[in-house]
Amino acid sequence: MCDLGEILVSRERIREMVDEIAARINRDYAGEEILLVGVLKGAMIFLADLCRKLEVPLIIDFIIVSSYGQEASTSGVVLLRKDIDADIEGRHVIIVEDIIDTGVTLTYLKNVFEARGPASLKICTAFDKPSRRTVELVPDYCGIPIPDKFVVGYGLDYAGMFRHLPDLRVVKNI
Ligand code: PRP
Hints:
alpha/beta, six-stranded mixed β-sheet, 33% strand, binds 1-O-pyrophosphono-5-O-phosphono-alpha-D-ribofuranose
């Protein structure tokens, strides 16, 4: 088991971040319809908060991708466990993530989605660990950059636990 450490990003700061990203998306997509694709499981809470601040017409869908399993670091292998139901062709798609680490997961998803002919494709993430990148990937909507610490809460887990915590917290003793 592990212990919870300090709060790295407070729920108040997270709320501000969601408001800022939603305002940008509302501006950028005024007059358009968008397809939000949440990457389960981690993105569920961010997507739920974000979509309720959006004022453009939208459809929500989910994809299940697994790259970590029970491990604390990526295996480098991306498994597509559930595809979306919606048709991407001709749509303005925004992939919504909780965190980008190595960038392997989103590079894979970008390639899969680009091949389906969207009108546009952008990446939106709540948190980002740019120091961990092994592939070049820059999110279009980036919430809060964080240092290379193992964190949980706001959708992020350790062995499936702690996703429900409202703040982003550091994990100790892992
Ligand atoms: C996490 C996170 C991203 C991915 C990022 O998912 O939600 O999908 O890892 O890592 P990368 O940039 O190194 O590819 P995870 O596999 O832990 O699944 P989860 O969303 O169900 O927690």
